[in-house]
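Bit of a strange request maybe. I'm writing a small parser for structure token strings and I need a real example to test against, not something I typed by hand. Could someone generate the tokens for this chain?
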Amino acid sequence: MLKERLVLIGTPGAGKSLVGKAAAARMEVPFHDTELHMKGRGVDVAQLFREDPVELVTQEVLALQELLDAEPGVIATTGEIVRTELGRNALSAAQSYGPVVLLQIPFEVARACLRNRGDTDRPALVDEEGALRVFRLRQPWFKEASTHEVDAAHHPVDVLEDLVRIAQMAALLRAEE
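Reply from user aminoacidic:
Good idea to test on real output. This should exercise your parser:
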């Protein structure tokens, strides 16, 4: 059992949930999704996304903190969390709990993943030009907020192995403290 916390960040379609669930199973810790956690608290995520994205990030920051405080586990965030300084600061603070891992993926690959999943209402599939602008804008924020980057365009098993290695290294470093 690998009692670590991993926070996964990245653009929609990067595979945060897919490989996050697999990493949690391998580490024998729970998997959490901040969006599902918010919905469980009664937050209408879709409505906030459309009408008040800043409040959405505020709610996600609260969800992230609750999950970090609860127990070791793998936590997948939404791509929105880096939208505001509050969200970026929360990710920086999350680094004191464990690695914050950016699942890096090219825009075209992320779009294809969303299309294959049937997420046709995602902005990246509705307004490609606008989504590409947002993708490019957020990349430096994701990089700044992360402690590690993993090329998520590789096979999911390879990404899983990278995540487990990162968690193992974090456990070793924490044991030396």
